Amino acid sequence: MVADAAAAYLALRARDARFDGRLFVGVTTTGVYCRPVCRVRTPRPEHCRFFASAAQAEAAAFRPCLKCRPEVAPGLSAMDSSRVLAEQAARAIEHAVHAGEALPLARLASRLGVTDRHLRRIFAATHGVSPHAYLTTQRLLLAKQLLTDTAQPVTRVALASGFASLRRFNAAFRQRYRLAPTQLRRAGAAVPGDAVLRLAWRPPYDVDALLGFFARRQLDGVEEVDPATLALRRTLALVHGGQVHAGWLEVRFVPARHEVHVQVCDALAPALGELRRRARQALDLDADPSLIDPVLARLPLPPRPGLRLPGAFDGFEVAVRTVLGQQVSVKAARTLANRLVERFGPRLATPHPALRRLFPSPQAIAQARPEEIGTLGIVRQRVAALQALAREVAAGRLALHPGAPLAPTLAALRALPGIGDWTAQLVAMRALAWPDAWPSGDVGLMIALGTRDAKRVAALAEAWRPWRAYALLRLWHHVETTT
After folding, report:
1. What is the pTM assigned to this prediction?
2. Is 68 known to be catalytic?
3. Is domain 5-76 in CATH 3.40.10.10, yes or no?
4. Catalytic hit among 20, 34, 68, 265
5. In this structure, are residues 169 and 161 in contact, taking their beta carbons and an 8 Å threshold?
6. Does the pLDDT of residue 144 top 90, yes or no?
7. Does the domain made of 80-188 have the CATH classification 1.10.10.60?
8. Is the dihedral of CA 467, 468, 469, 472 positive or negative?
9. Which candidate in 208, 226, 421, 442 is catalytic?
């Protein structure tokens, strides 16, 4: 339903074409729903119900008007909204900061399909600052946390935060915060040798559900979930600043403080900024339950406040595991992924006995002989999909992280052999952090809803926008924990 019915009625009376495709009106006296541009006599306000989509109107038992034909109304694109575009730009900037990458405004604008002038204008209108000022803020906030929570040298903190030189870093720090970086270090009193980041969340947070999701899918040698201590440990290899860093990390939930404490080994310390971003996304720490929970309350299930969307510490890993999960159970997909890790995952020495291997790199999968992968019990079509995916990621033509543009990435995934919309949607949900991802043909989804009618599922899902991925996760959780 549309929240502001009075404003919607004004648009209907004016037959305002700007709302065509964004607004539909159901007339209770006729049982028909129309576009706002319909030329029939305007109904009285008390007879109108307003919807954001045609599917919502039909789910409420209204039928389409034969005169204005709702099926020909213009559709909606993510790029139709300046705010959405500005938010995508902000996410790309944040990713570049934490990954230690340069991101010129012209390149960012080109990636989003707009001019840099247009991007500056809508960014300022949405965020109240220029993209450059936003970038500087993100860099300084990252530096502030590294200075406070770790004992890394100031020079390394400056480089990890994206500053080209220590001089520029010091100047920016003094200008914004009116103190020297070393003064903040003394205030934080980081202990030498520590590499622990504190990351907060907005309560409530369903820690048990998130750890349960990871536990049911954990890979031998790569991951370890410890429910008793509310901890998740894993190995990870990432490229940061043009270098590969490989090691282990541990995330531990501290519910009393509404925080996660992230500890990393020395080998990963140079990439703490990138690890901070990955941890926030993998654990969905930025979610706002006050917006999500009221929508999930519409599900035909008992409420479970604070549900979070399990993301990705490594987007390629999630994509591979999703391909392996095509048309098989969670247990079978885990078995196949374990075999892949054992065959192609490099060994890694760690102080944790359960952590002994890294997940295979895109290069390793791309360069393997197809028959090598096939001997693991992976069918030929999946082998082709895995290697096509690995080649695109290894070549840098496909990025799988929240800073990547959604529509082009979905299109690139669907263009690969053996990857359809189900796979692309799940990769977008976990690797790109898309909260409205919706794999409509998912078997677990249909089991939870008790129907195989795709049209009925689609109609029900309209009420869960723009948080359909969270609804999917809640339905999965119900199936996985009650059957």
Report:
1. 0.76
2. no
3. yes
4. 34
5. yes
6. no
7. yes
8. positive
9. 442
